[in-house]
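ENTRY TYPE: paired fold submission
RECORD: A
CONTENT: sequence, then C-alpha cells
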Amino acid sequence: MNLDFSAIRNQKNLLAFSAGVDSSALFFLLLKQNIPFDIAIVDYNLRAQSKDEISYAKELVIKYNKKIFVQDVKLENNSNFEKTARDIRYKFFEEIISENSYENLITAHQLNDKLEWFFMQLSKGAGLVELIGFNEFEQKENYKIYKPLLNITKDELENYLETNNHRYFIDKSNFDEKYKRNYFRYTFSNKFLENFSSGVKKSFKYLQIDLDSLNIQNVPIKKIKELEIFLNQNDDNLNIRTIDLSLKKRGLILSNAQRNEILKQKEITISKKINISILENYIWIAPNCDEIMDKKSKESYRTNKIPKNIRAYIFSKNIDLKELIL
C-alpha cells in the first residue's frame, strides 16, 4: 500500500491515535516512509479494553522513538456521547498543537467514513459542499487537518495490518447502533463499499473536481486577528458556501436552518459565538463580543460603515480603522 505523504514530509505532525484498525495502519504507513510524527490518544474510561489500548500506544512510542500525549477523561454522563467525545478530543489535540507548534493533525478517516458522512448528510438535506465534506486537507486557524486515507477502505487497511502482523484493537462500541454514525456505517456505507468501492472512489474524485471548479471565495480580502472580510459574490449559494467554510475553520458546522437564517437576516449571531454581516459589497465575520464602546468610537464606526454586530469586536481588539479600508 503506497501512499504519497510528501505534503507533510518536512513538517511537524501529530497523529490522532486510538489503537484501532485505521490509526494503527496509518501509524505503520507513516513509519514506513519515515514521516516525522508523534501521537495523541484519549481514554474515555468507558471500556476496560481502553487501558490495553493506552499501554499498546506507549509500547509503540518507546519502540519507535515517538512522543505520546495521553488525556484521561471521566465523563459525568453519556448523553450525546459522540459529540461530547469529539469536542473533548479536538480540544485536547488543539492544546497540544498550540503548545508544541505542530503544523498538521493527521487523522485516520478512510473511505468508509467518507461514504458514511455522505449518507448522513444526504439524510438531512445537504448541498454538494456538505455531501463531500471530508477533504484531504482542512485549514484551521493555526494548523491543518490531514486525512491521507480517504481513498482506502477499512477492509484494505485491515488486510494491510494482518499481512504485516501489526497489532490492533477492535472497539466493540463501534458496533452499537444506538449511535447514529454506527447505524449508517453498518446499514449502508460498509455494505455498499463491499460491492462498489471502485465506483465510489471515482465518484468522489469527480465530485471534488466539480466542487473545485465552483467560484467559491474562500480567501478573505482582509483578515485581522479573528475578523475576516470577504467579497459579496451576489449569489446566495456562493456566499453561504464562503461563510460555511469560514465557520468550519472556527469549529462550527452550520445546519440547513442556520444557513437559511443567515441569508434571510443578513446580520446574525450564530451559536452565540460568531457574528456575520452580509452587506452590499462585503461579508464580515467575527467572534461575538459584548464589549462596551465609548460614544466617540460608536460614531466613528457608524460613519465608516462598520457593520453593527462587528463593531464591538473591532473595539475590543483595538483594530485601527485604517486597517479596514477596502
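RECORD: B
CONTENT: sequence, then C-alpha cells
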Amino acid sequence: MQIDLKDLCFGYKDEFCLKDISLQISQGESIAIMGLNGSGKTTLLNLLAGLIKPSSGEVLSDGMSIHKDKKAIREYWAKIGYLLQLSERMVFSSTVKKEIEYSLKARNFKKDIRQDLISKAINLAGVDSKHMERHPMTLSGGELRKVEIASVLSYNPELILFDEPLAGLDLDSRMNFYRLLDEIKGKCSVVMVTHDASSALRMNRLIVLENGRIKYDGDSSVILNNDIYCEIGIEINELISINAILKARGIDYEDSLREVLNEI
C-alpha cells in the first residue's frame, strides 16, 4: 500500500495547524515524525489514520482518496493499525484474549483461524500467555502496551501508526519496544510520532514539523549531526549531547552507536 498526501491543510476557520503537506509513504517504509510541541505531529497522524478529514488536499491510498465514500474509508481502516499515546484509551474488553480478538472480530476473521493469529501476535509482541485471562487494566504500563501492539499485529496491517509509543514506559519496556520495532520494520509501513532520538534512529526516514509545515524530510541519520539537528529545530537530548562531545574529541561515535542500537 502506498500513501500519498497531496497539498494537505487542516485547521479551523482561518487557524491552520497543518499547511501545504505533501509526502509519499511507500510500502515497507519506516518513518519517524518529530517536532516541538504544537507543531502538528498528532494531527498529521490523525489525518493519516483517516480519523479527521483535511480542510483541503487529499489522502490517497494506492491512488484512491480514503474519503471518497464510506466503503473506501472502511477498507482503508481494515488495512491500518493506530496505537494512541495513552494505553487506557485503547481498552475495550474484559480479558487480554478478548481484547486482542476484538480486532479480528471487527475485521470479520473466521473463528477457526483467530486463535492461531492471536498466538502469533502475542509471541511477536512479547505478551505473556499467562496474562490471557486477566483484565488488561490490571497489567503494568509496559505489559498493556504489548497487548495493544498484539491487537494490531494480529490482523497483519499494511500500515502501523504509533503516537509516542514510549510514553510512560520504564527502561526494560523501552528495550522491548525497540526489539519489536526492528522485527516489524519492512513487513509493513511504520509511521511513529516520537520525541525519542533512539527510536527515530531506528527508522529509515525522519520528518520534522515546524509550525504545521515540513521543515525536514530525509534520512534519520541527521539526528547524529549536532549542527543540523539543532538547525531543524529539535530539542537537544542526552544522545545528541554525547555525540557532539565525542565528535569534538575526534571519536567516531556514529558507527558505534548504530552497532549498539542494532544489538539492543
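NOTES ON RECORD B: Residues 121 and 153 are 6 Å apart (CA to CA). The mean pLDDT is 85.
STATUS: closed
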